[in-house]
Specification:
With about 475 residues, this protein is an all-alpha fold. The protein contains 22 helices and no strands.
Length: about 475
């Protein structure tokens, strides 16, 4: 889709509507779809169409965007569907329980289980998707055993995911951002990788987001707000899921008759998942990991070959809502781009910037854009070419400016309830996106506040 001229303040309307409806209804997919309807209406309104033809033009515009996005999102549809299949195989075969028995020898207490979850997140730093898939699925049975709420599990997993990735230059995030910096003519002879590495010490949000987790786990910082209530519910009643999960007898007891199988049925597919994701891509990784897992289970006569199709169908069925959500989120990004939302927001804050305030204001604006659009790399791609020459002209520390943009997108990854990152984490931990947002956002506020304070201090100190 070609971008339409900048719509100014009107470009903010779809995102604002999505956030307001999501807060009121606590439904992410529905609010996103309504936001895309509004985006299409704004575009059609700018075309001068009148009369009854407005409805037809509006529908055609929205549907054209949808068809284009479905085609562009085909790889995500396959990835999430096969992710659902892999989870089905690991759960229904008892492989996840078998791994849990091995892990329980190390994670033999509530705190150790949470710390083990945190540690795994640091180890799997290549991709935030891979991090959520591997850690979320691996730790579900163990955290359930110790009556740890799924909301808390999701928070721990997602607090480490993108934050760990952004701090490692060879991760998917590091490679992407280094390549963008390489294209900018503001760093002299330095390569994008060198600039990126020098910016890592200034990536305060990522560092704090990671290390605040053990402080919560060890009780140094007590849990508060909805997360505290979720943990009290899990400890007192044994209900690790939010209350909606238990309505109509829809409980985890459906798998109560599953017995643990060999831990290798979990470990080998996970090794395949990580190796193929590193060498190729995560979509192929989920397909091959599912296939290897199924072959191993058939060889042990846990499943019959004829059951493969039913497991694939069931897996895609489990992920149907997730697939709808991700397509709707990407569709909203398309309308935001067509309305010129991101460039408009950046342009209006330019006059407000001063050398000392630029790092903090950059973090706030880019974080708001990342949260509002659900597009993190996309926001970074637009922001770097605008912010970095501005920082150079104002004689602002360039590494601090790079870190402000980069970590603001990490915040978006952790906070935006309809983003692909949160969607993966919610799917891996078996909760809804809004469950994650309700419980995690108050905790995420701590690294946000500390990051702003540090950006202000260094902004004035280095100005």
């Amino acid at each position: 889709m070609e971008s339409v001229a900048n719509f100014g303040w009107i470009s903010l309307i779809p995102v604002l509507i999505v956030i307001i409806i999501a807060i009121i209804t606590k439904k992410a997919a529905e609010s996103l779809i309504i936001g895309t309807f509004v985006g299409a209406a704004i575009l059609v309104g700018s075309m001068g169409v009148s009369g009854i033809s407005v409805v037809g033009k509006w529908w055609n515009t929205w549907f054209d965007f949808l068809l284009a996005q479905i085609g562009a999102s085909a790889i995500y549809i396959v990835m999430f569907g096969m992710f659902g299949t892999l989870i089905r195989l690991l759960d229904d075969s008892g492989a996840a329980l078998g791994f849990a028995e091995i892990g329980s020898k190390v994670a033999n207490s509530r705190k150790k289980t949470l710390m083990f979850t945190w540690f795994l997140g640091l180890v799997i730093f290549i991709s935030d998707f891979l991090n959520a898939l591997g850690v979320g699925v691996a730790m579900r049975s163990l955290t359930d055993k110790w009556k740890i709420s799924r909301e808390y599990l999701a928070y721990v997993v997602n607090s480490v995911g993108a934050a760990a990735c952004i701090l490692v230059p060879i991760s998917s995030w590091g490679v992407m951002y280094s390549s963008q910096l390489d294209k900018l003519d503001v760093f002299g002879e330095m390569s994008g990788v060198e600039v990126y590495v020098r910016s890592i010490p200034f990536m305060f949000y990522a560092w704090i987001a990671i290390f605040v987790v053990p402080l919560f786990i060890l009780g140094i910082i007590p849990l508060f707000g909805p997360m505290k209530k979720a943990e009290e519910r899990a400890l007192k009643t044994g209900k690790v899921f939010p209350d909606w999960h238990y309505e109509g007898e829809k409980t985890e007891e459906l798998n109560a008759d599953v017995k643990p199988s060999s831990a290798w049925n979990f470990i080998v597919p996970m090794i395949v998942l990580i190796a193929v994701a590193l060498l190729a891509n995560i979509t192929l990784a989920t397909i091959l990991a599912s296939l290897i897992c199924f072959i191993m289970l058939c060889a042990q006569k846990v499943f019959k070959p004829a059951q493969l199709t039913s497991k694939i169908i069931a897996g895609f069925g489990d992920m149907f809502y997730v697939i709808v959500l991700i397509i709707a989120a990407f569709l909203l990004q398309d309308f935001n781009s067509a309305l010129g939302m991101t460039p408009f927001v950046i342009e209006i804050v330019k006059p407000l910037l001063s050398p000392a305030l630029l790092p903090a204001v950059t973090f706030i604006v880019v974080a708001a854009l990342a949260f509002g659009t659900g597009s993190f790399w996309g926001v970074a791609v637009i922001s770097f070419p605008i912010i970095m020459p501005l920082a150079q002209a104002m004689d602002v520390n360039l590494y601090l400016a790079v870190a402000s943009v980069a970590t603001a997108t990490v915040f978006g990854s952790q906070a935006c309830f309809y983003s692909d990152s949160v969607t993966v984490v919610a799917a891996a931990t078996g909760i809804r996106n809004m469950d994650y947002a309700k419980n995690s956002l108050p905790l995420i506020g701590i690294p946000v506040v500390l990051t702003l304070v540090l950006n202000l201090i260094l902004g004035f100190a280095l100005a």
